[in-house]
Amino acid sequence: MYQSFYSNPSPGFPSPADDYADNKLDLNEHLVSNPPATFFVRMQSNAMQNEGIYLGDLLIVDRSLKPDLSSVVVAYLNGDFIVKKFSFFNILTDGDELRIWGVVRYVIHRLHE
């Protein structure tokens, strides 16, 4: 009798992944709590590496959240977009133009090139 390799790749033992074979992982479902207020940004520097955010990382940003002092935010400061800890903005002067665009909720980065 012919047995297809694809129907039973591990004779005698079911694959632990069989229970999840039909389930698709939707990162939006896990990482985006408010789709209309969420956007993605690619980090353009290593300025936040002390926070674990590196050049090329993908930031998932939620505009609907209010930042607290420990939040990392995307902001528009004096004509430039920046990513900083919200507490950084306590040192601004009266002449600075600041607009908070959103709170960084997640960071996705590669482990290896």
Can you give a write-up of this model?
There is one protein chain. A five-stranded antiparallel beta sheet has the order 1-2-5-3-4, with no helix packed on it. The chain has one helix and five strands, in the order H-E-E-E-E-E. The protein is elongated. With 113 residues, it is mainly beta. The longest helix has 5 residues, at 27-31.
Strand fraction equals 25-35%
CATH-derived architecture of the domain at 38-108: Ribbon
Which class of the domain at 38-108 in CATH terms?
A: Mainly Beta
How many alpha or pi helices?
1
Unreliable residue runs: 1-8
Find the CATH topology of the domain at 38-108.
Umud Fragment, subunit A
Task: Map the helices and strands.
Blueprint: H1 27-31, E1 38-42, E2 58-62, E3 72-77, E4 80-85, E5 98-108
Question: Can you give keywords for this protein?
Answer:
113 residues, mainly beta, Umud Fragment, subunit A, 5-stranded antiparallel sheet
Give the structure's gist in a few sentences.
The chain is mainly beta.
